[in-house]
From TrEMBL, chain A:
Protein name: THIF-type NAD/FAD binding fold domain-containing protein
PANTHER family in the record: SUMO-ACTIVATING ENZYME SUBUNIT 1 (PTHR10953:SF162), UBIQUITIN-ACTIVATING ENZYME E1 (PTHR10953)
Gene3D superfamilies: NAD(P)-binding Rossmann-like Domain (3.40.50.720)
Top-level taxonomic group: Eukaryota
UniProtKB/TrEMBL annotation, chain B:
One Gene Ontology molecular-function label: ATP binding
Bias (Basic and acidic residues): 248-270, 643-658, 696-721
Protein name (Swiss-Prot/TrEMBL): SUMO-activating enzyme subunit
Annotated Acidic residues bias: 682-695
UniProt keyword list: ATP-binding, Ligase, Metal-binding, Nucleotide-binding, Ubl conjugation pathway, Zinc
Any matching Pfam family: ThiF
Residues at which Zn(2+) binds: 194, 197, 522, 525
Domain Ubiquitin-activating enzyme SCCH: 408-439
Region named Disordered: 248-292, 643-740
Residue ranges occupied by any THIF-type NAD/FAD binding fold domain in the UniProt entry: 22-475
Gene3D superfamilies, alphabetized: NAD(P)-binding Rossmann-like Domain, Ubiquitin-activating enzyme E1, SCCH domain, Ubiquitin-like 2 activating enzyme e1b. Chain: B, domain 3
Lineage: Eukaryota, Sar, Stramenopiles, Ochrophyta, Bacillariophyta
Amino acid sequence: MVQRAHSHDDVYDRQIRLWGADAQKRMMSARVLYINLTGVTCEIMKNLVLAGIAAVVCDDRPYPEAVREMPCFFFHAEEMEKAMLPESNEGAEPDAKKAKRVPASVASVIQPKVDELNPLLSGRNSIEERALASLSDDYFSQFDAIVASRLTVPEAKRISSSLQKADVGKLFIVTDTFGFDGCAQLDFGNSHTYRRELGKDKFSDLLNIEPYISMVDMLDVPLAGVKSRWDKEVPRTLVLHRLLMDYWGYCKNGKNNQMRKFASFSDEWLSTNNLTTVGESFDLTHMTEIADHPEMSPVSAVLGGILGNEVIKSLTGKGEPANNIMLFNGLDGSCRSFLLNA
Amino acid sequence: MTVDAESTYPPCPPILRGMRAALGPALLAEILHSRILLIGSGGIGCELLKNLALSGFRHVEVVDLDTIDVSNLNRQFLFRSHHVGMPKCVVASEAALRMVPPPPPTTPTTPIQDDATTAKATYMPHHGNVFDNARFNVPYFQKFAIVLNALDNVAARRRVNRLCLAANVPLIEAGTAGYLGQVTVIDRPSNTECYECQPKPTQKVYPICTIRSTPSQPVHCIVWAKELYKLCFGPKVEDSMLYEDEESLRAERDGQGDGDGDEKKNDDGGRTTTRSDMSKGEEEAGGGGGSTYMDAIRDLRSLIGVDSSPYSSPSQPSAVRSKAREALTALFSTEIVKQIGMDRYKTADRVPVPISPGVDWVDAIPPTTREGYTPTDVWSPADCVSEIASCLVEVAENALTPDPTSPLPEFDKDDDVAMRFVTAASNLRSYVFGIEPIQSLYDAKGMAGNIIPAIATTNAIVAGLQVLQMFHVLRAQLDVKSGGGEGGKLKECCRYIYCLRDKTRKGYLLQPTSLPDPNPDCFVCRNASVSLVLNTHEWTLDMFLRRIIKKELGFAEPTIMIGEDIVYEEGEDIDPSEYVANLAKKMTNLPGGGAGHGSVLRIEDFTQDLEVEVSVSHRDRWIIDDEGEAKVDDREEIEKFEIGGKKPTVSKENDSVDAKSNGNVANSAASSNEGEARTEDTNDSDDEIELIEGDDGPKLDGIDDSRMYADSKEESKKRTLVDQSGNGTKKAKMTVDDSV
């Protein structure tokens, strides 16, 4: 067969047959910002880049240290471990030798790998190597969706309020996985509208997200009082996610990240948030390990697929968005959306 | 992160620390050891290989016979465009192997680890067919702890299901179509449903007269156009359903008259069928007897080089165009006038309107070479004629090359000429019969190629769920090994999980349910007997062997017995000539007393550890349901049978919970419609979506497939799920053509 440049129509044929040419067109003009790569955000990025959606990666953390434990096919374990050499054993005598290496950001290392994944996006992907804190408020509103991991609550709130100011109606997801569990908090934007799918090529009128709760407001809801028709108390996975967001933020800001163990941090956090009864179901020994080594490949893959679909819904306006929490339980394979409301 | 935590465990590659934290060191060690067999390295397979490598699996074998196509690149992310044409399993295995973390370093405290964890990781591709019994048999399957299915067709899934049942190896099965998918675990010791406990939708078979004379849907015209493709370009002109000679025309006329107005009681439950009025008037019609179009088609075939040697002198394009116009006039005008003259449409809603191609139509620039053309354009009748003419001219020119690549002897949706020809011919017929909508080339390709949409996200979801199920299975195996009890407990930890597009009432997009019990009537995992209705005076052993034993029941190397007499067997050490004489015999004339009404045959297949009893009933009158009208079944004898036994059968469209068959009504509709009764679970509490990961057109092997066509109407149902039964349990009923 003669080698020829493969066209969009050929490569995207099987998905255009699902969501239509107009949806594909919108996707191909969109750009999604990924803040802090993890297994789950890499999975979302893989799915969306393959589908023809350009990626901008914002991750100034050092490579490979920041991603050594991350189960992600972009970075090969063997390469990363080589990059860590010549230390004889992991963890030992690190500082002097690390300083010799030219520091590379995670974003700069992943850039060529993302480009290679879908050559049809050539020239449309980019990276952002500045620190998150140094980016101006209006930086965020230029993207069609933002997918973030390992954010602290203040970071998430800042991005959310800058998006609200611009009122662009764009999706903002904060997601992490931990052990068998995964959680995502989704803000589709106040002005976001969508059409429900009623059958093949049949759609509802334009609908608004109802009720709409911004990420800022979601993060301010006291979890202790949260209920729903199906949940007598706040879902355990959501509590864990928020606890870990605070714990990881604490570790990041603390000069010595092992100042306090997860167990004591968690006790205090649960009691401050009046969640001691929820916390009783946690296996803290197990959770301590998971808090420090949270990611597993298949959990990232499942949640990354689910959230990839949510981003596609937001870009195309087709399909009912998950409002506003997504909870994945890898033990039984269930995934459901949950409405977090004050 | 923490130095302390590291010292409490043996060393572990950093990338697997999350696995160890969640699963514990014992299960992680089991993962490093286990041998895994993966069948399929396409959409789901690529995702699985990535997950397996990143989860630390070190010993994986991959079977796939497919090569990489450009339309795979939107989701099969281990492939790049320079890999197009290469074997999928080879490229995918290499890519996955690079992701496997290096073995943990040895340290003074753990100086030696066993071979399986420290040996070089192997991801071994097998570019081959899982039906190859010399390589992929029960002993081969027994080498593995778990088998993963990532297949796109029912036949291969059935094969793997049987080998896993026979080898007693747990099988983790998955499928996707568009946004939808499902994952399940099949384990004989755990008493779970097997892949074949529930019937699979198969390709729809259309009555010949619907295709030849009375089309009412776009798909009927597509099927007709594919037959016309065969008639014009196929190696044997008489293989086409549209082929006509004196004999076939006479047979058609006689067939229409036969048994006119008769009423007949059928022998399965006493349902009564009445002949429609439709064919009554046809006897006195009949016309002159000769075909209206065969002469022109034969001339055309020689003119464009299909029937002549490739090095004969070239045909002038003008001659081809002129002959094309003659053939099209015959097909779309003369033949239609003849059919109208036979009173074929007396009772029809609308009478077809013949189209006579103008001289300027065949000379016009065809739509696909005009400026601004897109595959979603819809062509006018004149456009269709110029497109067909240009296809024929291209074929004529191409016939002079030493190794002509076009036209392909068989229709192929990815062949440009074939798709343009079929689109144009189908649409011309739709114009004649007033059938809407007229299809663009893009739409026609989806229908003619039976294309099932496929996206990266759904594949990623089901593959991730499969690996999570693997962890449960390996944990259970580990418990057994360490003396923690017997096997067969997978129902406690594993789940059947649906991937849905619209959330359930409780908000679920991934809905787990418990693993279902086996269907007690399953002939595969329950050795239940199968009942079969056919005309025992017309069917030969050869037909029975090809159509029923091999195609329908999926036997690979069957031994067929009547009482104590072996009437047929095959396999490595068996001389096939021994049974040649039996193959030609009618069922009733076989040794051992024959296989007439009420007899029982025993079929064994040692390669799959399978045996089944077939109870035969005789029926000589067959009625087919054509869009609600009962007609004499005019299909070939080999399509006239019912299989399944007492179980109720799938209703025709199978698109809603209400269509659950619960009695004779649905049963008779289904069996007379399809000619192949398929069975369905009567348990209303079960949810069922059967989906497949599908890329390609129908892969129909062996046997006579000329009457088999997929019903692309099912495509439209893919996203229509019946949701929310009220208790949070997903009710999802759908039919996806399972034949890709």
